[in-house]
Each structure stands twice: as structure tokens, then as C-alpha cells.
Specification:
By secondary structure, the chain is an alpha/beta fold. The chain has seven helices and five strands; from the N terminus they run βααβααβαβαβα.
Amino acid sequence: MQKIIIDTNVIISHLISKNISPTDKIFDLVFGGKIRAFISEEVWSELIEKIQSPRIKPILNRNTAKFIAQYKYAVTKIQAATKLSICRDPKDDKFLELAQDSQADYLITGDQDLLILRNHLSTKIITITEFTQSLIT
């Protein structure tokens, strides 16, 4: 079973999307137990903070409460023990730490500060489009 980390920006994009998007397939697989997604307390806190922010909350289009409840149930929460200082945006190191400690196959993100590190860890850092294409091949 593939192990993944989903960056907060991907989840927010999913929640504000008005149309069917590539993230629908990924979350269907996560919620169906076909792919194992990991999250840390630090990443979970960031997600909740973002969806409650005055800038994001008004543009959410999906049933956010239902999605968050499903996501919380479906993901595996771990306490990341590794401390890294790799990313040019230090706030993104938490995703790399989580990827390393969970031994994730993929970190799915739209963040250029993470994508620039594609080959830095054993975890493949890829976009949502690249991940959905990998599901097809």
C-alpha cells in the first residue's frame, strides 16, 4: 500500500474547488483505505488554522466539516521525531520530517519550496497532477 503525505495547500485547494478535481480521486483512495495518508499534530494544527482563517473560510465550497471528520478518521497520525532544517521556508520542514518518519512514498504538494527538493529525501516530492498520473501508469 502506498504511503503519502498531503500538503495543507493541496487540501485547501480541494476544499475551495467548485469542480471535480484530481484531488477527488486521491481522497477517495485515502477514505477507502487504498492509500495510507499520514499527518502529524503540527500539520493537523496548520490545516485547522488555515480552514478557519478569515481569508480561506469564506471561499470554502465543499462540506468542510464532513471532509475534516472523514480525513481525521482516515489518516494515520504520528508524532514526527525527526527535526530537519532543509527547506528554504522553515515552516515547510514539518512536511519533510513527517515524510521521513512515516517513510512515505510520496509528499504531494503545490509548494515550490518543497518541490525544489524533489530528490533530496527517499520520499518523492511531487505535484497532485504527477501523483494522479502515476496512478494511471
